[in-house]
Amino acid sequence: MKTTASLALALAGLTLAGPAAALAITVDGNLSDWGVTGSSWIPHSGVHYTIEDQTGDANTRLTPGYGGQAYDAEALYAAIIGTKLYIALATGHNPRTVQNPAGNTYGAGDFAIDFGKNGSYELGININHALTETKTKSGSTYTFETGFAEGGVYKNPTWNYGLWTANGVQTSTNPDPSHPTYLKSGTHIGQATLAYTTTGVPGYGAYANDLHYFYEMSVDLDLLRNAGWDGNAFNIHWTQNCANDNIIVDPPAPVPEPGSLALLGIGLAGLLGLRRRRS
User: Fold this and answer.
1) For residues 238 and 101, what is the distance between their CA atoms, to the nearest angstrom?
2) Residue 234: beta bridge partners?
3) What percent of the chain has pLDDT over 90?
4) Cβ atoms < 10 Å from Cβ of 116
5) What are residue 187's DSSP bridge partners?
6) Reduced to 3 states, what is the DSSP secondary structure of residue 142?
7) pLDDT tens digits for 108-145?
8) CA atoms of 140 and 21, how far apart (whole Å)
9) Side by side, which strands form the sheet with 48-51?
């Protein structure tokens, strides 16, 4: 019975991994290959996701703060395919929003990964937020934060935090440490493949007039292992630099590579043969 139970669990794991293995994702800021369309935020089978579609009303209560569509996180997606972790985000927050707290505007946050899902974020993926915007007849030019690589993957990070306590009270001295906003320091260990949009697109979700922006990236799993990942469950987190809204998703288990599948098949056949001989 013990052998039979082990075989059943192994086969169930392969079945669940199948849909994600069949995905083909191009990192270009277009989420149609995830299955995300204007009619629904729900992705293809095999993708893990969190959806928090809210109205564009400027006074909308988000989580943990206020801010409306301009600071709204709509949906976060994750899939592990082969040797890579894929992440996608839909948000009402323009990545070119300037980080200017005195002017009550806050820039794009970084992606944070929590190994063990215990509230301690051991890896960061940097998004360079804008510091200034200069408008000209031909468009806008920006200056950006320095010291971090765009799409850089950082282990042993320290984090900046937002404007809210864990109870949703605005504060400047006691922010919620479970919602990191952007990197303060860290060790650069590699690069993610990264794309994001800076022109808002309507027609998505329950509020078709709201504008949305999309992030997409892939990260080699070896970089996660370098940062201390042991292959178990983890959370992916994103919020803006004010942390008016935040969103978390946990990705599915890694999909075995073809060589591993072949070895597993041989092992299963051997176990079945051993069980027959014992019978």
Assistant:
1) 19
2) 115
3) 67
4) 14
5) 155
6) strand
7) 999 999 999 999 999 999 999 999 999 988 889 999 99
8) 41
9) 48-51, 73-81, 84-91, 213-220, 193-196
Report helix, strand or coil for 7. Answer: helix
Q: How many residues does the chain have?
A: 279
Q: How many domains does the chain have?
A: 1
- Residue 164: both structure tokens together: 């809210």
Q: What average pLDDT does this structure show over 205-227?
A: 95
pLDDT at position 30 is 97
Mean pLDDT of 203-226: 95
Quote the distance between the C-alpha of residue 86 and its chain's center: 8
Tell me if 44 sits within 8 A of 31, measured CB to CB.
no
The residue segments making up the domain with residue 55 are 2-278
Q: Strands, E, within the chain: which ranges?
A: 48-51, 73-81, 84-91, 111-115, 123-125, 130-136, 139-144, 152-159, 183-191, 193-196, 213-220, 234-239, 246-249
Q: Are strands 48-51 and 213-220 parallel, antiparallel or unpaired?
A: unpaired
C-alpha to C-alpha distance for 240 and 162, rounded to whole angstroms = 8
- Rounded to an integer, the average pLDDT of 89-102 is 97
SS3 134: strand
Closest alpha carbon to 54 in 64, 67, 69, 39: 69
Residue 61: per-residue pLDDT: 77
How far is the C-alpha of 276 from the C-alpha of 279, rounded, in Å?
5
DSSP 204: -
Report the alpha-carbon distance of residue 46 to residue 22 in Å, rounded. Answer: 9
Tokens of 39: 């009619």
Determine the Cα–Cα distance for residues 83 and 16; give it in Å rounded to an integer. 17
Please tell me the pTM assigned to this model. 0.84
